[in-house]
Design a protein that fits this description.
The strands form four sheets. Strands 3-2-1-4-5 form a five-stranded mixed β-sheet, sandwiched between helices. Strands 6-9-10-11 form a four-stranded antiparallel β-sheet, with no helix packed on it. Strands 7-8 form a two-stranded antiparallel ribbon. By secondary structure, it is of the alpha+beta class. A hairpin with a 2-residue loop joins strand 7 and strand 8. Helix 1 packs antiparallel against helix 2 (22-29), helix 2 crosses helix 3 and helix 10 packs across helix 11 (277-295). The protein has helices at residues 3-17, 22-29, 33-46, 66-77, 85-94, 102-111, 181-194, 218-223, 230-237, 252-272, 277-295, 315-318, 416-445, and strands spanning 138-146, 156-163, 174-176, 200-203, 241-244, 321-326, 332-335, 338-341, 355-360, 366-370, 373-378, 459-460, 466-467. Among the domains are: 3-51; 66-111; 138-212 and 223-295, 2-Layer Sandwich (Nucleotidyltransferase, domain 5), CATH 3.30.420.10; 320-393, no CATH class.
Length: 469
């Protein structure tokens, strides 16, 4: 008997000898007084078997017959050797006409000692990552595309950053049409302005954050490293370490943030009647303070670890789209249909053919830098969401200046072929000068003689034909 059955037998015996009343035994066994009397009646009739369930030891009505079980084992060891459980079950139905479920087949095979062909890997143990000790040590940022305005407005994406130590939703969170580089740069710019610079940022493998293409330029092949994205370049300039998450579970804290906001913030937007992106951003700005008051926690170390922005760092320049371009001879820079005129510099020099850095700020305006010096600006040309320019407008390091040969340095000896070509050119030039001198002397003796002159550009006659001068 089981422990439960032994307990019932003991309760019945105590009632029989008068140590417990029927009600006390029923309460101790978790039975009603009526059920307790039934158990006592079965025990009085059957003895100890009265506390055992009537179906104990009886085969279930739907149990697979022993003959069928033996046939399944024989087929698996002979005809369908090394078939996995699911494949074997399909073959039993299709080829043998034996309809059994996969769990039933699995139980039959395991009972016969036949193990699965494919050993499934056990679920990995995931340990909850301990929060950083200080605020500003690490941020988590992401974008959440959701029906934030429900049926009242367009489908939007919420861009935001979360402090790992405190769980605080940082300033700079905003709605955009799609997850993009401009959205991440705006978050980074606002966080740097209000809090400072974090030490690292945890993120996924979105194309705005990491290069996901296999294209390597010639300069990248020479350096053995791909150029980062626009956001990656900003993080590198600010000394922020990017950490790539290998799974959504790895950045579970910000995923839980989105789950909370998709409940509470959606309700707040509905309550405010927000229908556009601008209205949604206004509600979000008020919501951030209320969220942090309710859900933010204190860091393990009260002293924050935010780094100050250096005085020499221009955040607007760093958190923008950067390109390299060549100044044309008319002192203009042209990128994707945008023409930027360069004014004369402080020094009497020309910028023609110089490599310059062109920046499009997040407000759509343009700046042109030459050797870290601002030499031109232009108004906003943005229409809609900012995007990085593609094709030949990708970032490239400035071209290295031409090296001057040091005094006393040995010249490179010309090759024999170049020596021969130089000698032929010198002979031809000497012959031309000799012929020209002879013709001039002849013209001095006879004024009507022709004088050798180099042929000039042709000019048009009145009849439309061209003739030399």
């Amino acid at each position: 008997m089981s422990s439960r059955q032994w307990k019932r037998w003991d309760g019945v015996e105590r009632v029989r000898v008068g140590l417990m009343s029927n009600a006390e035994a029923a309460q101790a066994l978790g039975l009603s007084a009526r059920q307790m009397r039934r158990v006592r009646a079965r025990v009085a009739k059957l003895g100890a078997k009265g506390v055992v369930h009537g179906n104990c030891g009886r085969a279930p009505a739907h149990r697979v017959a022993e003959q069928v079980r033996a046939g399944v084992v024989e087929l698996r060891l002979d005809k369908y050797v090394d078939f996995n459980d699911q494949h074997f079950t399909e073959k039993l139905t299709e080829e043998e006409g034996l309809v059994l479920s996969r769990p039933t087949v699995r139980r039959i095979l395991r009972a016969a000692g036949i193990r699965s062909v494919r050993q499934r890997r056990a679920p990995r143990h995931r340990r909850r990552r301990t929060r950083k000790a200080q605020a500003g040590m690490m941020l988590l940022w992401d974008g959440s595309s959701h029906a934030w305005l429900e049926e009242r407005g367009p489908h939007l994406c919420l861009m935001g950053a979360l402090d790992d130590a405190t769980g605080e939703l940082l300033e700079g969170a905003h709605f955009v049409a799609h997850e993009c580089s401009a959205g991440y740069l705006r978050v980074l710019l606002e966080v740097a302005r209000t809090k400072g610079l974090p030490w690292s940022i945890y993120m996924d493998h979105h194309g705005s954050l990491f290069r996901n293409d296999d294209h390597w330029s010639e300069q990248e092949r020479q350096r053995g490293k791909q150029e980062p994205t626009q956001v990656g370049r900003a993080l590198e300039a600010l000394g922020i370490e990017p950490i790539a998450a290998l799974s959504p579970q790895a950045k579970g804290r910000i995923e839980r943030l989105w789950r909370t906001l998709q409940d509470r913030l959606v309700s707040e937007l509905r309550l405010a009647g927000a229908r556009t992106m601008e209205e949604a951003n206004a509600v979000l700005k008020r919501f951030i303070a209320d969220y942090n008051r309710r859900f933010a926690v204190a860091a393990a170390v009260a002293q924050p670890a935010w780094r100050q922005v250096g005085e020499s760092i221009d955040l607007k320049r760093v958190c923008s789209f950067g390109y390299q371009a060549t100044v044309l001879n008319d002192h203009t820079v042209r990128l994707h249909g945008v023409v930027i005129d360069l004014a004369p510099g402080a020094q009497p020099r020309s910028y023609a053919r110089a490599r310059v850095e062109v920046r499009q700020l997040l407000d759509g305006s343009w700046r042109v830098y030459y050797r870290d010096q601002l030499i031109a600006t232009a108004g906003s040309t943005a229409s809609g969401e900012l995007r990085a320019l593609k094709g030949r407008y990708h970032w490239a390091p400035p071209a290295a200046p031409a090296r001057r040969r040091k005094a006393g340095a040995a010249k490179i000896a010309p090759s024999p072929i170049n020596k021969e070509r130089a000698g032929n050119a010198s002979s031809a030039l000497a012959s031309t000068k000799k012929l020209s001198g002879a013709l001039h002397r002849t013209a001095g003796a006879n004024s009507e003689s022709a004088v050798f002159r180099p042929r000039s550009h042709s000019r048009a006659r009145s009849d439309g034909r061209k003739t030399g001068t």
